[in-house]
Specification:
By secondary structure, the chain is an alpha/beta fold. The chain folds into three domains: about 1-15 and about 320-400, no CATH class; about 25-170, Rossmann fold; about 175-220 and about 225-320, 3-Layer(aba) Sandwich (Rossmann fold), CATH 3.40.50.2300. About 50% of the residues lie in helices and about 15% in strands. It contains 18 helices and 14 strands. The protein has a five-stranded parallel beta sheet, with helices on both faces. Strands 7-6-8-11-12 form a five-stranded parallel beta sheet, sandwiched between helices. α4 (about 75-85) packs parallel to α5 (about 100-110), α7 crosses α8 and α10 (about 230-240) packs parallel to α11.
Length: about 400
């Protein structure tokens, strides 16, 4: 029986290969930055913003690097938009005679579907800005806190929003929902989260056969979808619930138009009811740790000095980025698989009676999905969902059409 299982699982790729250029078709290729020379120099001492962004993309081996044009005023920006197309506008708050709201409206009068991102130069400047809810022509607000990776995170956020549904439909690409309304926190957290996703995705593609397959797997990395209030979070869950790797949620954020300290727990209860196996990480202040544990949520203290390493641990253990550990009935590790190439040998070391139980685990499906084996992950999930408790067999679990 085991040989038959291995032929099904290892003898073929285990999923439908998708051409890498079919994924993420809507990229940010041309970016227009509206900032004074003073603000540009605030980003980097010598003002070479394009080189800074290029360096970040090259360090992560990303194949699509946007070109950046900079203008000093809103009027110059509008003239440029009339001359050529852009994929994204990032604007500082000081853009000449127009205020932020007027500039956003003027941009959309020229290019109705063009995303406009507002970038505050400091937390002090952020504190005096109108809320995003009152700026209908502004897509997002971020604040510069000295991390050059923020530009990469802004660009990837726009690309993920544009491509997540398309990539989920054609290839089953997974997403991670981040629910956070603090501009200052997500301006810090998103660069860190994207760097981890991209770094760990690189580590997973070492077993790719050729460059095209590697590029496909990079395009198939998990998307990050940011929600700033309860309605946005529920909308994203409704839309992507069958293609989610996990959810990262704050405890407090707006619900029904006002800040609600219980909004994160209310959202988590919906997740536990409708997707009980979905990994959910709450990031909040320490006093919420016990309430999170009562809902079986993983927890990170926002003020922890080891936040990055704890996030990395959560991703490795629950989102499929680490080794898959086959467990015995006592919870002891009986075998482990770091990648698809070694999965065959790892399965050989697992006693037959333990194999079906391990296959039925949600983190096995996440592990397959993180390695772009989407069809196999979906097939395993469907078999587990349709089987009576304890009825998943080794043969059925790996007999993928």
């Amino acid at each position: 029986m085991r040989d038959g299982i291995l032929n099904e699982l290892i003898g073929t790729p285990g999923h439908t290969e998708v051409a890498y250029d079919a994924l993420m078709p809507r990229r940010v290729s041309n970016l227009l930055l509206v900032s004074s020379l003073y603000d540009s120099y605030a980003f980097i001492e010598d003002g070479r913003l394009s080189e800074m962004v290029l360096s970040e993309f090259l360090d992560l081996d990303l194949r699509s690097t946007p070109s950046i044009d900079r203008v000093s005023t809103a009027e110059e920006a509008l003239d440029r938009l009339r001359e050529q197309p852009y994929d994204l506008v990032i604007s500082m708050t000081r853009v000449g005679d127009m205020n932020v709201r007027q500039f956003g409206d003027a941009v959309h009068a020229v290019a109705p579907d063009l995303p406009v991102v507002l970038l505050a130069s400091s937390p002090r400047e952020l504190a005096v800005l109108p809320s995003l809810a009152t700026l209908s022509s502004i897509d997002s607000i971020y604040v510069w806190l000295g991390d050059a990776r923020l530009f990469l995170a802004i660009i990837k956020q726009i690309e993920d929003r544009r491509n997540a549904w398309h990539d989920a439909m054609i290839a089953g690409v997974r997403s991670i929902i981040l629910v956070e309304d603090s501009v200052q926190f997500y301006s810090t957290y998103l660069p860190m989260l994207y760097t981890e996703i991209l770094d760990q995705t690189h580590a997973l593609i070492a077993d790719s056969i050729n460059r095209a397959q590697k590029l496909m797997r990079m395009g198939a990395r998990p998307k990050v979808l940011l929600a700033r209030n309860y309605d946005e979070a529920m909308g994203l869950f409704e839309e992507y619930q069958h293609n989610l790797l996990g959810v990262i949620v704050d405890a407090a954020f707006p619900r029904d138009g006002k800040e609600d300290p219980e909004a994160g727990f209310a959202f988590a209860r919906v997740l536990r009811e409708r997707a009980p196996e979905l990994p959910v990480l709450m990031q909040s202040h320490a006093h919420n740790a016990a309430k999170a544990a009562a809902l079986s949520l993983d927890f990170l203290d926002k003020s922890s000095p080891t936040l990055l390493s704890e996030l990395r641990g959560f991703m490795r253990q629950h989102l499929g980025f680490g080794d898959f550990e086959f467990l015995g009935p006592d919870g002891a590790v009986v075998s482990r698989a770091p990648d698809l190439r070694t999965l065959e040998w790892s399965i050989q070391a697992v006693p037959e009676e333990y194999l079906a139980t391990n296959v039925a685990r949600n983190d096995f499906q996440a592990w397959l999905a993180a390695r772009a084996a989407f069809d196999l992950a979906d097939a395993v999930r469907a078999i587990v969902a349709s089987s009576a408790p304890g009825a998943v067999t080794c043969a059925s679990a790996f007999s993928v059409p």
